[in-house]
Amino acid sequence: DWYITEILEDHVVPFASFVQDNFLLMHENVAGCVTRYLDEFGIQRMVWSACSPDIEKVRDMLGRSVQNHLCENLGDLLAALQYGWERLPQENIATLFVQCLQDVQQ
């Protein structure tokens, strides 16, 4: 599975080992093989919906802010995303942050 070999093995597991007991992975409840793999390494996960309305709102706001940028390469896309992120209304982000905290505490 690409996600296991390219993301988890290369980035998550080494970082989790470095952080040790304080590591908590924000994980979208994906395939069972991913869950089993994470369990093998004892990686604790915060259960998080892949379609969390809070995360989706931020992604949509950011997408709208960059939709008219012509991106010819990855660098252009990164610059457009950074530009868009810096211009997102901070009161919206603050509200979504509070909503995320409330969701996690439930």
Q: Tags for this entry?
A:
106 residues, mainly alpha, two-stranded parallel ribbon, 5 helices, 66% helix
Low-confidence stretches: none
| Estimated share of beta-strand residues | 5-15%
Tell me, briefly, the overall form. globular
Largest pleated sheet: 2 strands, parallel
Question: Which helices and strands appear, and what pairs or packs with what?
Answer:
Blueprint: H1 2-19, E1 25-28, H2 32-40, E2 45-48, H3 53-66, H4 74-86, H5 90-105
Summarize the structure.
The chain has 5 helices and 2 strands, in the order αβαβααα.
Question: How would you describe this structure to a colleague?
Answer:
With 106 residues, the chain is mainly alpha-helical. Helices cover 66% and strands 8% of the residues. It contains 5 helices and 2 strands, in the order αβαβααα. It has helices at 2-19, 32-40, 53-66, 74-86, 90-105, and strands at residues 25-28, 45-48. It has a two-stranded parallel ribbon with strand order 1-2. Strand 1 (25-28), helix 2 (32-40) and strand 2 (45-48) form a beta-alpha-beta unit. The longest helix has 18 residues, at 2-19. The relative contact order is 0.10.
